[in-house]
Amino acid sequence: MTELPPYWLRDNCPCAECRDPRNGQKLFQIGDLPDDLAIAASAELDGNLEVLWSDGHRSRYPLAWLHEEAGDDGRTEQGKRLWTAADFARGIPEADWASYLGDPAEQAAVLAAVRHSGFALLRGVPTADRQVLRVAESFGYVRVTNYGELFDVRIEPDPNNLAFTAEAIAPHTDNPYRDPVPTLQLLHCLENSATGGDSGLVDGFRAAALLRDESPEDFAVLTRTPVPFVFRDRRTELRADRPLIDVDALGRIREVRFNNRSIGTLRGDGLESFYAAYRRFAAITLRPELLLTFRLGPGDCLVFDNTRLLHARTAFQQDGHRHLQGCYADLDALSSTLAVLHRRTAALDGIAELFAGEGAGEYLGEPVTMAEHMLQAAAAAEAAGAPDHLVAAALLHDIGHFHGALHGRDLMRGRDNRHSDTGADWLARWFGPEVTEPVRLHVAAKRYLCAVEPGYRERLSEASEYTLRVQGGPMDDRESAAFAELPGAADAVAVRRWDEQAKAPGAATPDFERYRPLLAALMR
Amino acid sequence: MTELPPYWLRDNCPCAECRDPRNGQKLFQIGDLPDDLAIAASAELDGNLEVLWSDGHRSRYPLAWLHEEAGDDGRTEQGKRLWTAADFARGIPEADWASYLGDPAEQAAVLAAVRHSGFALLRGVPTADRQVLRVAESFGYVRVTNYGELFDVRIEPDPNNLAFTAEAIAPHTDNPYRDPVPTLQLLHCLENSATGGDSGLVDGFRAAALLRDESPEDFAVLTRTPVPFVFRDRRTELRADRPLIDVDALGRIREVRFNNRSIGTLRGDGLESFYAAYRRFAAITLRPELLLTFRLGPGDCLVFDNTRLLHARTAFQQDGHRHLQGCYADLDALSSTLAVLHRRTAALDGIAELFAGEGAGEYLGEPVTMAEHMLQAAAAAEAAGAPDHLVAAALLHDIGHFHGALHGRDLMRGRDNRHSDTGADWLARWFGPEVTEPVRLHVAAKRYLCAVEPGYRERLSEASEYTLRVQGGPMDDRESAAFAELPGAADAVAVRRWDEQAKAPGAATPDFERYRPLLAALMR
Questions:
Q1: pTM for this one?
Q2: Same domain, B220 and B181
Q3: Predicted confidence band at A182 (pLDDT cuts at 50, 70, 90)?
């Protein structure tokens, strides 16, 4: 292990002194490390590499981390699905707007399609003015340009762009004269009753990869020639000098800019070879097998990667109306949203595993398992018409028995494991106070109810009566009055009542998966 | 000339069939040109290269255009002023907010400083909440990020970033984990009464150029190693894989990303050489002679290129308050705004030349020159307390005598040159209807006044009486009634009265330059 580069290893020290646990940001400068930094000693222990440094610092690296593979940011061709039209013979990536909004898995699938295939289609997006901005805001931020916050794609009397006419438009990327170029485009169809005006998409990465296969020289010319893209109208004068095909430091295709209309005047050497390569690439982008065609209808919203896909439209007649609204946004925020959705999915998977694993074990002397108990509590909340956040609180109220320094078993041995607090704290990583606070207070609610509601204590199960004493017994008058003042008191009392009802052996018990969409929608 | 590459030449054909005159966008696809395109014949004529193409198309290229030099988009080190702190010993690029808003030349100087030196400081920006957004909107568009539309830089109880603490921050660029990275940052100081908390800037292009000079190998390593920059908090998980120093296809430094805090884990080969190069570059960025330091006071707003400058701050004590508001924006819009300002300056220069050149000649039989006449009309408008747009209309009302197919001299030969229309049309390239319409109607206003105001016609100068007849004589009743209904009629009548007053030989006549700021402020 000691052949690992010392500065690399030290720069990645995960200890709280080196790295802010909240955001992973490093707390030292690379220049703060001594010039003669070396590993003084190292050893593998309990699945970790323990390192003592020449400057006395100690680091501990999980061995699994040491062997992780390189990920990437998803901007290059690597790991993407480069396509031709035939790849979508059985349909294009699409989702219903309502499902996209309500189901994080569906949202993740849409965003993943934009990352991997370069586009996705949302159906049933309300045909309301400015709705396209709401779509962009569902995963990121609108990028304002000289065309405004949004732009209307329809016939204009004095168009400053071919888009605002009825003419056909050949496959192209938008705004190549901007740097940074908007990396995402959205087109939301409000009306399309004209004859013609169909949409087309071409995978520019695929086209570039074909050029690389068929004519590596031409590919190289296009990657190393900065092309001036220009746009000029009364209020605007934009210019960006960028290659038609941009590759990263490792030679992987990273961005395609292709817009014949706005290529300005190249100067200097190599014009002949540039034009030969440009014409060859242009011909590839027009191959029929690359062109995926479809028709946008009212309520359809296309989201696509403007650094990769070329978009096109056929000419249309003025026998009907065609009106799209479009806007720009960026891939980085989309990828972030997708990563956070994946994180949530992983968290839900973790909770599901608790229900299936430890939760299937005995529940502290009750005649049901812990999982059955929590699922029955959720079902009772549902049956009572409780709002989603209280169904979730009922479902997760005892999750703290699995977390923290003390287990639920310790509680039964007379040591309060403070499971309502540890559970609430753990849940706060994903859920807001509307879920966590009833969980936190559900033990206090038992002590409160025993104090203020005649007959409540008598109805407790034997085990619950036992833990009540470990947890401090019924509240005194001062405690009860203070509890009743807490903002979450009523919710906690409600959860507590479902808690008591949820200890029935053999009662109908829903499956955990039933609650996954509800939990996902509540996660922040 | 025929050795020019045919496709290059044809792609740049400026004719209206090939290129939309409104925005310069091309109206054909590169693939529309025949495979055997060739120049059939060419000749130089009247300063143009005339070309007959093998497909029958004809093109005409100004020879001056053929010999133009390559411009660029201003994103690389080329043409920039790479600096060390000593270069600003006599002060940094700065301007007063009011002058910046009121004087296009001042605004252009500020924006040019951001392009060339990477930063500029605006003083006296109102210390109002969200004002930083107004500054960004004065030249471009705000880029929203996970930190919001704007972010408050002050101590926060649970900071997700070192910026929101009182700690010192070493020179760095912001948001390296975004791709596209925000290319501009604004920091607006609302309060700075704490001890410490001074600001620092380092020219990252200069630092990179020093690395290239001192250690070309290390420079090469940094340009070809994609580095994962990462940021993760509760709602965000961003990653961008970009080199610390990005060069364009010609090897010119184009972007610097430097942020020790958010460099993630590199994997793969070359870790040793990367870390050696990274440490060397980091050491260069910390050289005292590179660090320009200054203190932001309330009302100061720093605008800087986040792809080039590293910014820093010293630690501060909590003996006072320090509160900045920041936002991000992009260089492309800033450069566009600057180009449009330059275009306006060129237009004003052109008008100034008309006053100094042709305008200094005889004014159609009057005892003053054309320039004196128009300047006197402007002075009369000013003396009458007219609003700026009418002073401008008075100043420019006869500009049409220099434009259009017929000159003012033709008018005196009995042919109406319709100078009010040609002038208004020409002015409409820069001015709105509040300026152009009184110009357009000032001849009609004479015909109107002669019809409706007893004694008006008798007061006309001899030349004006002559041109009245060429222009159609006094209006009849129907014409007068229609004129009086026009929205700009009253303004046109006012301009007309100043017109008549402005023919006094030897009267005090202001200089054209007096009106340049007023005109500049009215230009769109």
A1: 0.88
A2: yes
A3: very high
